[in-house]
Write a structure and sequence with these properties.
By secondary structure, the protein is mostly helical. Among the domains are: 120 residues, no CATH class; 119 residues, no CATH class. The protein is 70% helix and 0% strand. It contains 20 helices and no strands. Helix 7 packs across helix 10, helix 12 runs antiparallel to helix 13 and helix 16 runs antiparallel to helix 17. The longest helix is centred in the first third of the chain and has 35 residues.
Length: 434
Amino acid sequence: MSQFPNKQQDLAHHTAKAVDNLVREEWGKLLALLISQLKDFQLAEDALQDAIESALIHWQRNGLPRSPPAWLLQTARRKAIDRIRRTASFNSKSDQIASQISMSHELSELIKLDATEVALDKAPAIRDERLRLIFTCCHPAIEAKSRTALTLRTLGGLSTAEIARAFLDAENTMAQRLVRAKKKIKQAGIPYSVPEGNQIPERLQAVLEVLYLIFNAGYFSTHGSAQLRVNLSDEAIRLSKILLKLMPDIPEIEGLLALMLLHDSRRLARFDSAGDMISLKDQDRNIWDSNKIASGLKVLHTAFERKKPGPYQIQAAISAIHAQAKSHKSTDWKEIVGLYDELYRFLPNPVIALNRIVANSYYQGPDIALDQMKALEEKLQNYQPFFAAKADLLHRSGKIDAAEVTYIRAIDLSDEDTTRLFLQKKLGRMLRQN
């Protein structure tokens, strides 16, 4: 008898873990299907969440069904009908909803409660629905931060609390943001569709920007738990792989995926055991992830073979040179400078110009780079990385007093404790050495 509660606890833990894994892997597919049938983001999400809560109860009692995704989908459809019945307008909507949630013969053959497996990825209809969902969430009419949050919620299955922590928002603030985004889709009549013809490049660019923002929120941010940051970057990589699977042979999707993999290969070397930031120059390259580097290089090679260069491919090429260099000193800085020149033709902005100047400082020297910096001072007068880079160039040029003043300016502009501490340590080391 004493072991019975433990068995119940083990079963509850096993069920919760199975549901958690299923949500992570299947949430986007199931939600995309429900949205296509119900034509209502909020109703679809609420119904799917209701189904997940039911799964936690029923699966603990009866064990996992043969096809958990199919069970969730069928249950979510029933939950949607229950929710509609509870509204005052059910009578006027019942016929419409009944027709919307009836499965096609093809789809019903793929999704049966007694099926051994549910081939969601192999269903053309489901692939199409998920692609529509990506483009709907990333529509330019939706505010940029809301696009990112909505993509993480609907396609990634991240909770509102997780997304709020990633963006340093209160949970209720993020919840309101997500609600407003869904209302915007409905009120503005944003189509649940994949763009056609000449709309595709522009709309795809918005999707790629969202995915890269998600990656950067995990990779470059020092806020929140380390595991949450890793999860965000992993999620961006996973979503990019999904997008590439849905839209194969598009080199800029491959370029973005390669860029993420190559960046992420350096994750473990970016901070020391105390959590302090380590510059690229000082990182231990022996702990860079060789598997991710190999994967990134393979995807980038495939993209380059299509002979349609773009900014993500070029950025990935720059990262690839770093990944393959034996040391910071042996890096092919001349090639990197040339790639930044090419990138600037695609993205003529002062941040790209700054990165090009920093790379050139290792090719032509810090004095020439400082000269080139002058053209950017007015445009980047409040940009912390500009002053951090300039301080380093001044230090390497032997202008210690000017470097000290510039480091202090960079520290004052830093809005993250980790970055501020990193610069303070660099300043301290410089002053001790001189």
